[in-house]
């Protein structure tokens, strides 16, 4: 489907009166599933917060943030891809994103090697991001210990 606006058309134009819902429904509004508590904590550490809004199709909390206030964005850098390799580059993981917009935007978790304003990435990383040598990528260090601890991987 090209347009998702039909979903919005199915919902009431006025707020729902939560007090009229059964207690079982009221108790879960704005709550995360126990399996996603770690993911919520990671998002909150990154700068997202709950602003008293819930999802349209399910009543879980919507976490929101301005892009420029998210840690991973604030600490990121844009670098030019200097070369591609199949060798292991480091033990440290980075979030590596192409600089494309909307549906073409992609981000992967990868090892990289930074050299001043350029970056060496793996051929697999380049393929997954749909980029090549001399393209720009946005990189940000992953706080892997936080993520692993929160998600209990």
Question: What attributes does this structure have?
Answer:
153 residues; alpha+beta; six-stranded mixed beta sheet; two-stranded antiparallel ribbon; 6 helices; elongated
What's the arrangement of secondary structure elements?
Layout: H1 5-9, H2 23-28, H3 37-46, E1 49-54, E2 61-64, H4 71-74, E3 77-85, E4 93-98, E5 107-111, E6 113-115, E7 118-122, H5 123-129, E8 136-141, H6 144-151
Parallel strand pairs: 3-7
Antiparallel strand pairs: 1-2, 3-8, 4-5, 4-8, 6-7
Helix pairs in contact: 3-6
Strand order across the biggest sheet?
5-4-8-3-7-6
Can you count the helices?
6
How many strands? Answer: 8
Task: Label the structural class.
Answer: alpha+beta
Largest sheet: 6 strands, mixed
Give start-end ranges of low-pLDDT stretches: none
Describe this structure in words.
- By secondary structure, the protein is an alpha+beta fold.
- Helix content is 26%, strand content 29%.
- The protein contains 6 helices and 8 strands; from the N terminus they run H-H-H-E-E-H-E-E-E-E-E-H-E-H.
- It has helices spanning 5-9, 23-28, 37-46, 71-74, 123-129, 144-151; strands spanning 49-54, 61-64, 77-85, 93-98, 107-111, 113-115, 118-122, 136-141.
- The chain has a 6-stranded mixed beta sheet. It has a two-stranded antiparallel ribbon with strand order 1-2.
- Helix 3 packs antiparallel against helix 6 (144-151).
- The longest helix is centred in the first third of the chain and has 10 residues, at 37-46.
- The radius of gyration is 20 Å and the shape is elongated.
- The model has no long low-confidence stretch (mean pLDDT 86).
């Amino acid at each position: 489907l090209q347009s998702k606006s039909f979903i919005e058309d199915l919902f009431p134009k006025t707020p729902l009166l939560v007090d009229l819902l059964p207690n079982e429904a009221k108790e879960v509004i704005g709550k995360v599933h126990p399996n996603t508590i770690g993911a919520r904590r990671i998002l909150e550490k990154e700068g997202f917060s709950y602003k008293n809004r819930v999802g349209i199709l399910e009543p879980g909390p919507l976490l929101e943030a301005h892009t420029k206030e998210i840690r991973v964005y604030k600490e990121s850098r844009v670098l030019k891809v200097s070369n591609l390799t199949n060798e292991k580059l480091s033990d440290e993981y980075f979030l590596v994103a192409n600089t494309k917009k909307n549906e073409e935007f992609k981000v992967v978790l990868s090892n990289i090697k930074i050299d001043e304003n350029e970056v060496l990435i793996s051929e697999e990383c380049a393929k997954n991001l749909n980029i090549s040598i001399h393209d720009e990528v946005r990189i940000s260090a992953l706080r892997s210990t936080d993520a692993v601890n929160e998600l209990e991987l």
